[in-house]
Amino acid sequence: MPDAIETIEVHTAPAYEVAIGPGLLAQCGQYLRSMIGPLHMAVVTDSIVAPLYLDAVAASLQSAGFSVSTHVFAAGEPHKNFETLSEILEFLADAHLTRTDCVAALGGGVTGDMAGFAAGCYLRGIRCVQLPTTLLAAVDSSVGGKTAIDLRAGKNLAGVFLQPTAVLCDTDCLASLPADVFADGAAEAIKTGVLADELLFSLFEDGTLAAAPGQIIARCVRYKAGVVERDEKEQGERRLLNLGHTVGHAIEACSAFTIPHGHAVAAGLAIIARAAERLGWAEGPIASRIAACLSKNGLPTGADFSAQALTAAALSDKKRTGDRITLVIPRQIGLCELKRVPVAELMPIIAAGLEV
Ligand code: NAD
Question: Which DSSP symbol is given to 51?
Fold first, then answer.
């Protein structure tokens, strides 16, 4: 690998490598050939990413000896559903992919979730490589093996765990991201900072992230890789990664998915931080620092929904078990804990966090 490319090994079973740096999409054929050999690669991407990067990826794969089939679906969270999944599965079958072939997810978190899910259930599971093109997919969703589609009842309610065979994260892709999509990724990276990395958080406070996207992505991936290695199937520690997501998913659902995931997570993070401070669970004044950092990065710190509506949406979320729900509570910047609270306490917690 050239010096500009940083690699991080994720020690799941099987282990895989995340490569981060410029120019990786145009060289993906060469990298993937060395990792998995030339085979039939089914590239799945969305209608916005396809005109930007699909030709370069297909050309690179073909010149490295891969045979390539491509499928483009309509971009956006409203398409992260059964219909699109079904189309992808039919495409894989029509393209005659076999058990030894591979799917490439070229795009943001929506593409990664759906192409990953399709790979995980086609022929009872074939390999998938992730080629993330949003900051959110680079810092979070492309690593860890969670895949999903949304159901009418809520977000990410159907999916499988499928660790990718490789992740190639081309930092050049960030240049074509609209500002609000870039901000979505900043939200997940700021979340990682609040969870475990105060220095990372301070890069977003200072606004110095644009100068060093590779460094930010690598810090997030290293942290997530460690958590996933210790708790691949989210039985314990991995639940920490849901910081901001209980309220965040509720905000997405209440907005009928018009508020994007990263923006909703940012608001969810600000709300749970305010609640933690007001209820005495935080070890000091963290809420205003978190809100200021989110605002500086173009992200919301609240939501125009009632505590009642958000609670109802949150309780239909999958993280509820019996009459309790597990929340991720920030105690300091860089330190969070899991807290199981009775379902009946959720509404007052959310209400405490909504009050500015
Ligand atoms: P997305 O995939 O919808 O991408 C956002 C928008 O950016 C889309 O319109 C897309 O077409 C466009 N886009 C992508 N790359 C681009 C580029 N380089 N230049 C210009 N436009 C580009 O959404 P996202 O924010 O990347 O991901 C959100 C999704 O990820 C949610 O569905 C969320 O549930 C999921 N997610 C999954 C995990 C996981 O562990 N599996 C973790 C976090 C989030």
Answer: I
Sole residue written with tokens 């969810």: 268
Whether residue 211 sits in one domain with residue 88: no
Cα atoms in the Cβ-side hemisphere of radius 13 Å centred on 281: 22
Per the structure, the count of domains in the chain is 2
For residues 166 and 225, state if they share a domain. no
Under 8 Å between Cβ of 26 and 63:
no
Predicted model pTM: 0.96
Same domain, 195 and 171: no
159 in the same domain as 211: no
Which pLDDT value is given to residue 108?
Answer: 98
Which residue's C-alpha comes closest to atom 7 of ligand 1?
181
Taking the chain (356 residues) in consecutive chunks of 10 residues, what is each chunk's mean pLDDT? 85 96 97 95 98 98 98 96 98 98 98 98 98 98 97 89 98 97 97 97 85 91 97 94 96 94 98 98 95 97 97 80 90 97 96 94
Q: Say whether both 151 and 194 belong to one domain.
A: no
Angle at 328 between CA 261 and CA 259, to 5 degrees: 15
- The domain in which residue 299 lies consists of 179-232+242-354
- The secondary structure element, H or E, covering residue 157 is strand 154-158
- How many A from CA of 283 to the centre of ligand 1? 34
Q: Are residues 172 and 314 in the same domain?
A: no
Please choose from 25, 57, 181 the residue to mutate so as to test ligand 1's pocket, defined by most ligand atoms within 8 A of CB. 181
CA of 354 to the centre of ligand 1 (A): 27
For residue 341, how far is its CA from the centre of ligand 1 (angstroms)? Answer: 31
Question: Where in the sequence numbering do the catalytic residues fall?
Answer: 124, 146, 188, 224, 234, 238, 242, 245, 249, 261
Backbone angles phi, psi at 38, to 5 degrees: -75, 135
Residues with CB under 6 A from ligand 1: 46, 48-49, 52, 75-77, 80, 107-111, 113, 133-134, 136-137, 140-141, 144, 146, 156, 173, 176-177, 181, 184, 260-262
Q: Are strands 149-151 and 154-158 parallel, antiparallel or unpaired?
A: antiparallel
E strand or H helix at 330, and its extent? strand 324-332
Tokens 């591979």 found at: 102
